[in-house]
Design brief:
alpha+beta, 323 residues, iron, Alpha-Beta Plaits, 4Fe-4S dicluster domain-containing protein, disordered N terminus, four-stranded parallel β-sheet, 22% strand
Length: 323
């Protein structure tokens, strides 16, 4: 019964999404701090009213852009959660991503538009040692109402080829799939382990960010990739931003008041203490790059982390204060 109370169904044409109001960063706030979904919604179907996210059913065009861009999965569609994509990817020898308008074969992995293809989805394939193709038809893209541009949207894709165990090919015009994978398959199958973990995180029983969201679903595959390939790699700022890799630094003026920790919606910031001192720590893999901490405290400086290595899995000490 709790599940039906927690979830608010959004029934629009053939779109059956779910809105977790409590997961929205603007829940019960008089002034919105995140407007990503509203800015993306071209017909203006999404709006805030009295601290809650609302949907005008008559305006929704079922584009699903809000689902793919919401940083906390407040807007959710069961068929589009990442472990559902993994089921398809695991069955494919070569993983081909394309949009709904350009699908050619049953095994293609489709997203509503290539502009919302996130690098996290690609890391699902990389973790399983699968080569990736991105198929686009320029003529279709030119006439599409989404006004998609590879240069603006996914120009980071070719840079992924410089990372270990990553292979991406962008194809257009004549559709030609790779005949076989140039990469070795993994001996260890992560599918069952990761799927169980993600399903457990998705079926939440309460609405406390810090207690229940924890590890962001899409981060799971980047985490697994870092565990497999522990070699330090440097990324361009463009790719690092696409992966939402964040570096947080705190000035010496910080008094450890705890405001940043209290306002962090996903528990990326925490304060621990021992008999001698209090310690402010940051766990980057939980961060969703919402910038709430930066807007909460003048002593926090946020930038993009361009170094990809195993250290990102660890908690980083930002500031200490003697007790």
């Amino acid at each position: 019964m709790w599940f039906s109370l927690l979830k608010k169904k959004i029934g629009v044409r053939n779109f059956q999404g779910v809105l977790f109001e409590e997961y929205c960063l603007n829940s019960n706030r008089t002034t919105p701090i995140c407007t990503t979904c509203i800015e993306l919604c071209q017909p203006g179907a999404l709006f805030f009213d009295n601290g809650k996210l609302n949907l005008d059913y008559s305006k929704c065009e079922n584009c699903k852009f809000c689902i793919y861009h919401c940083p906390t999965y407040a807007i959710h569609l069961e068929t589009d959660v990442i472990y559902k994509y993994e089921e398809k990817i695991k069955r494919s020898e070569v993983v081909c991503f394309t949009c709904d308008q350009n699908i050619k074969f049953e095994g293609d992995i489709t997203v509503p538009c290539l502009s919302i293809l996130s690098p996290e989805l690609l890391f699902v394939a990389f973790v399983h040692k699968k080569p990736v193709q991105i198929y686009l038809d320029k003529n279709t893209c030119k006439t599409c109402k989404n006004n998609w541009s590879m240069k603006k949207s996914i120009s980071y894709l070719q840079e992924l080829n410089y990372l270990s165990n990553c292979h991406v090919e962008i194809i257009n015009g004549q559709y030609e799939k790779m005949k076989e994978s140039p990469l070795k398959r993994r001996a260890i199958d992560l599918f069952d382990v990761i799927t169980r973990r993600l399903k457990k995180q998705t079926n939440l029983t309460s609405c406390s960010y810090n207690e229940n969201i924890g590890e962001i679903l899409n981060r799971t595959y980047l985490l697994e990739y870092l565990k497999i390939d522990q070699k330090e790699q440097y990324l361009s700022k463009k790719l690092a931003k696409a992966l939402k890799l964040v570096k947080i630094e705190v000035s010496d003026e910080c008094i450890l008041c705890g405001d940043c920790v209290e306002n962090c919606p996903v528990g990326a910031l925490s304060i621990t203490s021992n008999t001698k001192k209090e310690i402010l720590q940051f766990q980057m893999m939980k961060c969703i790059d919402c910038e709430i901490c930066k807007n909460t405290c003048l002593y926090i400086n946020r930038s993009t982390e361009t170094k990809l290595n195993e250290d990102l899995l660890k908690r980083k000490t930002l500031h200490e204060k003697l007790i």
